[in-house]
Amino acid sequence: MQDLLFVGLGLLTGFAAILIVSKSFQIGAPARPQSPAADPIAILVRGDTVVDSTVDADSLLGESSLIGLDWAALRLLLLDRFKETPEDLPHMPLRLWAGQDAQAALNFRPGGDGVVHISIDAPELSHSLKTRMQWDEARNSRLISATEEAPFAMWETAADGSLSWCNGAYRALIADTEAAHGAGETADAAPQGEAAVFTLAPPPDTGARAERVHRIDAKGRDHWYEVTSLARAGGAIHFATNIDSLVDAEMAQRKFVQTLTKTFAHLPIGLAVFDRDRRLVLFNPALVDLTNLRADFLTARPNLMSFFDHMRENQTMPEPKNYGNWREQLSEVISAAHDDRYCETWNLASGLTYKITGRPHPDGAVAFLLEDISAEISLTRRFRSELELTQSVIDCFPDSVAVFSQLGVLAFSNAAYRDFWKCDPDSAFAEMTIVDATRDWQSRCDPSPIWSEIREFVLTLLDRAAWDAHLRTRDGLDLTVSVIPVSAGATMVRFSETVTQAAQTQDESLVTV
Asked: How far apart are CA 41 and CA 53, in angstroms?
């Protein structure tokens, strides 16, 4: 029994020792680390300027530091989440809820000396959500940097037209507008809407609308912008690109076209210039007179096919034999004009004659020149008729007649000349000159000193008088050559047979009998 008692006491003593040691370890062990409390999202505003902010507030609003921002700029940052942020700092406590997040709240607590404490209450985020937000923040920082440094203005407006967000280029335009109109006049209006810089019509409910807007900068210079507006839920987003160079180029082109129009206004030749889209972009009054097309039709910029169709209807171009192939023929005309090889003469039913020429222009344009050559054709025909009459008259002469110009080129010869001297100047490729003619004459006649005299007489520019000389051919025929000056410095050379005294006596006796 005594032994059992000692064993029991030993066991109790061991348990007691183990319990003491166990408690001693618990007392000496460090406590489980607690996660530190997150920094509050707080901003301190005094007057109208941010004087202090926490790191989380800077990070949440996407700024390296909020200190120094005025309330208007801070309000633009808060509007992204809290659409009901007031335009002026509240003087009474105010709590606003985020539209898309019912657990996020914006608190205003006014204090003394014009100080307003602004804080944002947000629920604790999980580790995975925090990681995702860090990734989104890195991506958003790149997007913010890109939009902020963009060379063109970008801004967003609410449904009432008030300004919700803008980038640096747009803020520069606001500053320039304030300088142009006076800071006191537009300082309050600039943060609230785009009217301080651009006056825009509401964008369509779907799609985009682009319009050109004119503004004058602080130095009085004109600027043009192409503003593209996209409708968004609860407002719109706008992009403004400066197009001064484009407008200047268009103005220069318009002035150049006006100059060309004034230049070509007095030309009797009709001019029609079509651009690369086959639209009429330039014409002169002569085209209206020649084609009988209405001015309102031409100013409406018809295409090339319609232009020629109306000319055909007005009978100012030849009627095609096959109207089914008319469009195909027009395509060939356009192709030939682009290659600078189109030139035709149109004989119209009215008796007029038109000459139409196609010429290529830069950038795929093509020009057509329409000229009334009826008078020229009539004069040419009349001149040709007179030449034929003159030729028929001198062909009736029995004597050989040749007319040389002042330059010594054979201009006319009759049939008797061609038969006697066995030559046909019209069939030769080269022009026959007085040198060639005297060489032929000399080869068929006995030697005579008059050949050089005839050449000098034809080519001289001095005053001249007609003269005669006698020749004998190698066949024994006596000839009388008469060298006679005519108008325009030309010279007529006539060869006639010499009638001898015996032949003349014999002819007279035959007449007596």
From this structure: 8
